[in-house]
């Protein structure tokens, strides 16, 4: 049975904001003292997930894959279909977030929703989430570094991008993002607000320019054009692979869940942040996809380019305008990595608070000056840099390591949703809930996650070589093997799932703020 959280009436603290008192009471009822500053308003919470999803970064990074795996038909209609499925996942997650608004998010709720083996459910969910987020920070930084070098090459044609330079630029980006996360949560909130307007303004500029400047556009019927350049003879298989373009973009919306302990009225604003981020990303992303698709001049040339969206900009707008718009794309990628690192840090903070990581005592400490988990920030930075380092020798090795990013995240999303389904009517919802639609929405969400995870682990190009092989199953297998060996060797004797620090009145006395 799920553990019901009865929220006691908040204590009176002078002129304190009643919203903060309610949030504190909820946190105390879950057994945790308040250590983090609540500076995130509703918009800030939405902003972090919207920034991590980051339609500009996701679409510009994966557009070339979609051009060759299904073409315009899958890019456009696949975007619509997958967006709807992801909204089911987000709504199901949001319902859980409302019931358990903590930084632990997925692993915490998994431990609370499991009838038996709470520690094991929580353990596996937490490590899948951790590895997925670290991989996401590394992959986003690497993508930003790649586009930075593309810009430099356009500006100075004599510049030659190399693997070593990509790794060095990636490392610099991740370290700078770590520095930004080291300071107050207020700074992070401000940067995330800026990122939303950067994304929306950038979207308007890119789309408007693609509508106005090119001499010609494709007809509307071009959106039904189908292409299968995957090397596989089955068009159906090629089209299914093309769905991954959208799935790659829609990751990281658990960021709103992880920021719950720093969000005002978290039981409502965190779930709203999740669903709004997905909904707005779906709409704005479709507009950008259509603008790019209808601006393609020479399809084969674009599909074969190293950065197809950049080639579209150059062909339709000229080199000067293309370079200016590329700066918008690079900025979006930098904001995406920053928000992803923030979410990763909060997951580490919470996971360590419950004793699930080596050196947990270090990683869940909070700076008395900034009220942020500074040590957790730099653990996230170091882990991300460790994943980037193999790219110094081989891009294939780097791809193999971070390939678990999306699969790990979505499987972590599935676990608490699945456990909520198993509870049925025993599940105690929070203020934001789906009512009688909770179970069918959750069932669709879990089904889609399982189907899409299979797609992520299938071969994505033929012929299959060392460079084209999909290493996601191997990477996922290694993560699960290490987690399993660790679990049976030591963790099962010391980790029982989310820890309660005492009764609400006892943990209230432990508040650091």
From TrEMBL:
Q: Name one GO biological process term.
A: amino acid transport
Q: Which residues cross the membrane?
A: 42-65, 77-100, 121-147, 167-189, 196-214, 234-257, 277-297, 317-341, 376-393, 399-419, 440-459, 471-489
One short Pfam family name for this protein? Answer: AA_permease_2
Q: Where is the signal peptide?
A: none
Q: Which residues form a coiled coil?
A: none
Cellular component annotations (GO), alphabetically ordered: membrane
Query: Where found in the cell?
Result: Membrane
So which domain of life are we looking at?
A: Bacteria
Keyword Secreted in record: no
Gene Ontology terms for molecular function? transmembrane transporter activity
Its protein name is Amino acid permease
Species per Swiss-Prot/TrEMBL record:
Streptomyces luteolifulvus
